[in-house]
Task: structure prediction
Amino acid sequence: MTHIYGIKSCGSVQKALRFLDAHAIEYTFHDFKTSPVSREKIEIWAHHSPLSILLNTKGTTYRTLELKNRDLDDTGKIEWMSTHNLLIKRPVIEYKDKVIVGYDESHYQGIFHS
Result:
């Protein structure tokens, strides 16, 4: 089963959900706002995707928390993401043995149609 993580109001998440629906790919959706992900889950994702991709440095939460001014190591980044899930770039999709971060239709085509 494919699992997609994010928030419903996120444009990238909405595009990903439309893509999956259009290609009849079954999935379960996990909303960060109602079901936050654990530190352990983020650590698993970090083994499959670099933290430089997983940490959303362009979002409002990142700017509001002023994380750019902190010298965070990987442990610190994971800690912040686990307490503030909105710092995670969206969507995160678990598909087979892959973790896909963000929305890129051409990338999705290669993954979901291979």
